[in-house]
Amino acid sequence: FAFSKDNNWQQELEMSFPYEETYDQLQALSEVKADMEIVKPMERLVCGDVGYGKTEIAIRAAFKAVLDGKQVAILAPTTILVQQHYDTFRERMNPFPINIDMLSRFRTKQEQKKVIEGLEEGKVDIIIGTHRLIQNDIRFKDLGLLIVDEEQRFGVLHKERIKKLKESIDSLTLTATPIPRTLHMSLIGVRDLSVINTPPEDRFPIATYICRRDDKVMAEAIRRELDREGQIFFVHNRVRSIQKIARDLNRLFPQARIGIAHGQMAEEQLEDIMIDFLEKKYDILVCTTIIEIGLDIPNVNTIIIDDAHKFGLSQLYQLRGRVGRTDRRAYAYFLYPSYRSIS
């Protein structure tokens, strides 16, 4: 299926984007549109740093597909990410008569049933969901575009299902850290690749400090963030001692509300804590690397990483990308123990 050229509505949606697009973003967008406008199914990978505007490309591509009467499925690895995409898509497409829905555990059984029926009848234009979207009971009336966010987060079985779904339709994959196989496919030409290298105009580089673990340094970093009513990620990657770290921070900052999140929690409990943090019910989140999955919390602009010498470079890069997503100056502190010298 070849999608038609941009019409007035498409231009109206694009004009309503509140930021200045970067050159790379516009380039990636024109490549995506060119792919969509030919009969051969698109298979494109958009690779760009966290917060560099990949979601806006997905929004415009989805809108283009819906204008031609096709349905769009957007697949994200976590319930929270699904919720965030759902909110963003609805906000951007609010002035237009487009039916956007989501499938995740935030929907009751009854609501899910209604959404699934809506998909089959063609009443739902854009559906955003977790791997629930690729189960056998989901049928689309006329699916035209599949968008996959952070594909490397899905398991092998899910990837096989995604591959099946992609066979005859246009597909767009968004990622900040492509897995070697995906990148290899792009380099040998199985997939087309668009890269967004430029940060948005008003974005400050993240002030990054590598320093010995010291209560004074930590206290100053946390106090600075709390004083400007921001929130803090404190990454401590050992579940065994995470409670103790939270207690220590509580002693230093008795007035701060502190939450704990780690991968050994039940999935629902973990997501509830992350949502509470998103809704500013906590000031500091003491957590493991569980937060490196594309969460967008603009109010968090300080991240402190304990025992940073135990992490790989790409992991530190990914974690640091959790902050600095607005026009506020963001800070990242990589701490190593005082008894170690750094090489």
From TrEMBL:
Stored Gene3D superfamilies: P-loop containing nucleotide triphosphate hydrolases
GO molecular function, one term: DNA helicase activity
Family annotation (InterPro entries): DEAD/DEAH_box_helicase_dom, Helicase_ATP-bd, Helicase_C-like, P-loop_NTPase, RecG/Mfd
Cross-referenced PROSITE patterns: HELICASE_ATP_BIND_1, HELICASE_CTER
Domain Helicase ATP-binding span(s) in chain numbering: 35-196
GO biological process: one example: DNA repair
Protein name, UniProt field: Helicase ATP-binding domain-containing protein
Organism: marine sediment metagenome
